[in-house]
Amino acid sequence: MKVAIITASNRASAGVYQDTSGEILKTGLQNLGYEVISAVVVPDDVALIGLEISSALTANVDLIVTTGGTGISPTDVTPEATAPLIKKLLPGVSEALRAYSREKVPTADLSRGLAGINGKTFILNLPGSPGGVKDGLVVIERIVPHALEQIAGKDHD
């Protein structure tokens, strides 16, 4: 399964600090058996994030995971960049992530991350914090393989 990772962060894209969340995500996805075909860092910009998601869709990846930009600060725009590219919204996945994270971090409910599909690609927005990414990996492990089978047209066993 091929995956593209997109980190949305003004500071990481400017080299102010290292993209720790993106690295955790890359390692975690590889440990789950995904082939990471791209991992990019872009500023918190709707057009740039949307361009990277579109590029990953064109590359026919199975999974696109973004990290960062899902909160409520003025620069958090990842859901706005993602929404136009989702053809089928999967709100239960976003709720699963918030529910899993809620006990550890009550403010997890402020995350506006989206999940959905476009063609045969699953798209998921994760928070930018290392903890949010680790929680996201748990949800990916539990849900995404079955979702990808369904997207591919396999029937329930």
Automatic annotation (TrEMBL):
Presence of keyword Endoplasmic reticulum: no
Domain MoaB/Mog: 4-147
The protein's annotated pathway: Cofactor biosynthesis; molybdopterin biosynthesis
Keyword Cytoplasm in annotation: no
PROSITE patterns (UniProt xref): MOCF_BIOSYNTHESIS_1 (PS01078)
Name used for this protein in its record: Unannotated protein
Key words of the record: Molybdenum cofactor biosynthesis
GO biological process: Mo-molybdopterin cofactor biosynthetic process
